[in-house]
Amino acid sequence: MGSASLMLSCRNYSAEPDFIKYYGQELMQSTYNLARMNMFLHDVLPENQRLRNGDTLDSDWPTDEETEFDVVTMNPPYSAHWSAADGFKQDERFMDYGGNLAPKSKADYAFLLHGFYHLKQTGTMAIVLPHGVLFRGASEGKIRKILLENGSIYLRF
Q1: Of the residues 96, 113, 133, 138, which has the fewest C-beta atoms closer than 10 A?
Q2: 28-35: which pairs have CB atoms within 8 A and are 24 or more residues apart?
Q3: Domain ranges within the chain, ordered by starting residue
Q4: C-alpha angle with apex 151: 148 to 155, nearest 5 degrees?
């Protein structure tokens, strides 16, 4: 979620910006607090904010709340490290990719799959990633191939 500026930019494309509900999760406490403040500075009503302080990959969004969204925007930390523990192969966000997980040293595809999992079938996702995700092999190449073959993503330059 970062400072929420990317989420807030969605207001510019909505016919009814005051009815947007914002969902986001941020690991860093200080950045989480900045996002909350940014929401208030942009007149987003408290009832339209569902912001959490937590680890997006290790602690998925609670299932007792809405978990499929019309729009997902992400600018995750480039090539962040994550656990890539075997248990994630049974996590619904990552299990449809042939047992492939993003490597421990580069969580870029883990973030992409997390966002994609929470996207409605008719939704749109915009994610900012380092250009390396287009060229890496191993498990990332296999995940990318599956996403391209099933029509889930297209590249825009």
Answers
A1: 138
A2: 29/53, 31/1, 31/2, 31/3, 32/1, 34/3, 34/4, 35/1, 35/2, 35/3, 35/4
A3: 1-54, 67-157
A4: 60
